[in-house]
Automatic annotation (TrEMBL):
This is tRNA (guanine(26)-N(2))-dimethyltransferase. Its EC number is 2.1.1.216. Residues 23-53 are annotated as: Disordered. Keywords: Methyltransferase, RNA-binding, S-adenosyl-L-methionine, Transferase, tRNA processing, tRNA-binding. GO terms for molecular function: tRNA (guanine(26)-N2)-dimethyltransferase activity; tRNA binding. It catalyses: guanosine(26) in tRNA + 2 S-adenosyl-L-methionine = N(2)-dimethylguanosine(26) in tRNA + 2 S-adenosyl-L-homocysteine + 2 H(+). It comes from Solanum tuberosum. Belongs to the class I-like SAM-binding methyltransferase superfamily. Trm1 family. It comes from the Eukaryota. One of its GO terms (biological process) is methylation. Pfam families: TRM.
Length: 263
């Protein structure tokens, strides 16, 4: 299911990017000229900035007009690079052996880097071993770190197009940092396995973790989803962001939601 959602998200992201480019092209001057795209800036960046001794000499010898036209081209090249859609970056914040992160890296086309975190050394070692077992694609796309996911997400704000939270029990302690780590328009995937709490088994615990008081009833699984969504929304709102639910499911012993986060 997560793989299917991720594939759909990546296609949707491409469509949205195309639409954005088309809007900019309609608006006019901001879209760079196609002919400029083939002109890459010099490989040596110091020379590119006119900082090397040769470069300084060159710049001195240039007329004002030439300098203007070169900086024009460079600016347009830079703008063009800004407009390119970069491959989606994924954070599997609670990865254990990295099974899910590996599947994302290997099975989803258009995926960029996948970062797998765990705060347990044994899991990180097994994740690294699994990356090696899975060959060159896995090795080039996946990296595994020993880290507390909350600290990592807080120190990497708006860096990931996709953040996946798959904790033991409640995700509540990870939500505040997770909503900050997703880029605008990115997607947060979140599981909660503490259904007893979310379905009304202990109202006070649910209130303290999720900020909602659950009712007991036949509809308790739908209510569990709504409580989790409301909790994610309230964390997003603290940072002037909001969520758009994409898919919400109750399955076996857990609920899982997929939400896009916008500013
Ligand atoms: C349910 S398992 C993840 C399973 C994994 N997503 C999979 O599909 O195989 C939860 C993992 O979160 C890790 N974990 C718990 N608290 C963490 C934290 N604060 N930072 C990073 N990892 C944490 C645990 O060590 C455990 O490996």
């Amino acid at each position: 299911m997560s793989i299917a959602v991720l594939r759909t998200f990546i296609q949707q992201r491409k469509l949205e990017h195309k639409a954005m480019l088309a809007r900019q092209a309609k608006a006019g001057p901001k879209v760079p000229d196609e002919s400029v795209s083939e002109m890459e800036p010099p490989a040596d960046s110091s020379q590119h900035n006119g900082m090397s001794s040769d470069g300084c000499k060159l710049l001195e010898e240039m007329s004002q007009d030439e300098q203007c036209s070169i900086s024009d081209v460079q600016t347009r090249n830079l703008r063009r690079k800004d407009l390119e859609l970069k491959p989606a970056r994924v954070l599997e914040a609670l990865s254990a052996s990295g099974l899910r992160a590996l599947r994302y890296a290997r099975e989803v086309e258009g995926i960029g880097q996948v970062v797998a975190l765990d705060n347990d050394k044994v899991y990180v070692e097994s994740c690294r071993r699994n990356i090696r077992f899975n060959g060159s694609v896995a090795c080039s796309k996946l990296e595994s770190h020993l880290a507390d996911a909350r600290v990592y997400m807080l120190t990497h704000p708006k860096e990931f197009d996709v953040v996946d939270l798959d904790p033991y029990g409640s995700p509540s302690v990870f939500l505040d940092s997770a909503v900050q780590s997703v880029v605008d328009g990115g997607i947060l995937m979140c599981t909660a396995t503490d259904l007893a709490v979310l379905c009304g088994g202990n109202g006070e615990v649910c209130y303290s973790k999720y900020g909602s008081y659950p009712l007991r009833g036949k509809y308790c699984h739908e209510m569990a989803l709504r409580i989790l969504l409301a909790c994610i929304e309230s964390h997003a709102n603290r940072y002037k962001r909001y969520i758009v639910p994409v898919l919400s499911v109750h399955m076996d012993f857990y609920v899982r939601v997929f939400v896009r986060i916008y500013r």
